[in-house]
Amino acid sequence: MLAAMATPVLAQDKPGDIRGTTLEPTAENLAATWRKANLVLPAALTGGDRWQGAAAAAPEVTGKAPLVVLLHGSSGVAPAVKEFQVWLADTMGLASVAPDSLAIEGRMTYVSPVSIEIYERVHTLRLAELTHALEASKAWAWVDRSRIVIAGTSEGSVAASRYAGPESAARLIYSWSCEANYFVEHPRLGFGPEEPVFNAISARDPYFSPSNPWNKDYAVTGNCAGALKGNPHAVVLVVDAEVHTILNRPDVREATSRFLSSVLRP
């Protein structure tokens, strides 16, 4: 994600750099994010080998299975995102799809920090991508719609946490703190008070922890514990690390596995 700060699309790679102009969630733009979405199907669902490819080329399968809708960070469907999807398929037996926001022609990319107005336009687009993905996935008869998991990492986690629709059986929020900081006007969280939510983030996350000077005007804690207080089905994992992208760490995967196993039981 987000932290687009690690976004390799800008040669200068300087804070405040912006390339592209498009952040409008038009029908054409949303369709592009779905056509090029990265879909991974576990072997148990295909009846053969694990399948991976564009959502537009999804093969015919039979039966019913849960689906994880995963929103990538600001650097797109990066190798870490695909690696996580493969792990979901091979270890958890779960199908997953990651809409590709950067498939939009002229899609704006940035190196933080940029203005809050730009961030909020990005979040609006990402939320529209999620809503579109949930609707488009209805064409897949194999999806068990009572067991849909909404997930996100960094930039994608803002939309994953803001979505207020009824579809999610659980949420996975990686590398985002669910609180007011330099990256959002307001958290505007959409999950219910008892909805199963898993949050994992580094204790010294370079973007959302108190150690980032961009957050000096905010009372940040650096994780979602405050937002999830009182939720009996919430799990917050604060990793003793400084790295931003953590969804493929062994300890994070182990905690994710325990959480998903508990909430996706048939």
UniProtKB/TrEMBL annotation:
InterPro entries per UniProt: AB_hydrolase_fold
Full protein name: Alpha/beta hydrolase
Source organism of the structure: Bradyrhizobium campsiandrae
Upper taxonomic lineage: Bacteria, Pseudomonadati, Pseudomonadota, Alphaproteobacteria, Hyphomicrobiales
